[in-house]
Predict the structure of Cystathionine gamma-synthase.
Amino acid sequence: MSDQHSTHGAHGFETLAIHAGQEADPQTGAVVTPIYQVSTFKQDGVGGLRGGYEYSRSANPTRTALEENLAALDGGRRGLAFASGLAAEDTLLRTVTKPGDHIVIPNDAYGGTFRLFSKVLSRWGVEWSVADTHHAEQVRAAIRPNTKVVWVETPSNPLLGIADISALAHIAHEAGAILVVDNTFASPYLQQPLALGADVVVYSTTKYMGGHSDVVGGALVTDDAALGEELAYHQNAIGGVAGPFDAWLVMRGIKTLGVRMDRHSSNAARVAEFLQSHPKVAQVLYPGLPEHPGHEIAAKQMRAFGGMVSFRHKDGEEAAVQVCNRARLFTLGESLGGVESLIEHPGRMTHASAAGSALEVPADLVRLSVGIESIDDLLADLSEALK
Ligand code: P1T
């Protein structure tokens, strides 16, 4: 496939979100990329491919449109779309590591990502160790001669920790390793890791990119053309690709990413402020709060602070679980980043697989994915649930 560097380079983010990779259909003029729900493509004589397409695991026009869009949004040369965030992570890790290599992983990350390192990759002889990625010097200290990857989530899931992407890129590169940033919580609208020195950006597109809780997907973006080729090779060789309809849903979600993220961020700021003054709340974790330890770095590297807010309940684990059970408008469920607000108990739900590890989360923690409903309704629901 051709180099994906965008011809829309001069355009703003919202314009790219709607147009990059998506010309009107040359045959019909359809302004939206069609769903090419097809597994194989007719060849005009053996090897005579029309437009380079032969089999939809290797490439599919709907997925290509999304992949070009993803590359443009992060300012990278190559975007790749997968069946889930974990499929993207797995493909990335099996492309850039081999047995005997070492990875520095964050002390706060999605439980499934931790499970991939600790239960799956470790069986193939890839070593990992945990560092507090919110303190760059601790990452430097964790690096070994065989370190190939420094992995970071910022903001992190579920504790909303902030890592300094530029500082970590410097440390990783000095050691001959690559920096991978899971940008799922921020989205490319709020944060551009490649411009800050990261080598690969990872997404669960299930979240803000899709934005409507109706699709599971993942993505990788890099500006390194050679690494992009390697990743594309493994995407096809391993096979965890996004299907055409899923690719189309993510593409549709991305068109409104900017306006949604603005509203997620302003609603979340109001929720954080409300929780801070609530007598049942021991601590609010939100990078938009001036007292958050990562606030200054977040303000430097993010356009706004996003829609995720976590808090610790003063009365402990059972009380935290009860808030989750009592909320109504905040729907009790895993996942995040959709237009509708969600609430969950990370210790028993999304991060149960981190129990007993360095990534275990506090038992009194509640995580909110603040949606774009009317803010007064959201605050009333939380107020009722906390009673
Ligand atoms: O669920 P999947 O699309 O495979 O993406 C995995 C993933 C990767 N990175 C981050 C930061 C994530 O939050 C996730 C998935 N997270 C949830 C399902 C959750 O509720 O936290």
Summary: The chain has a mean pLDDT of 96.
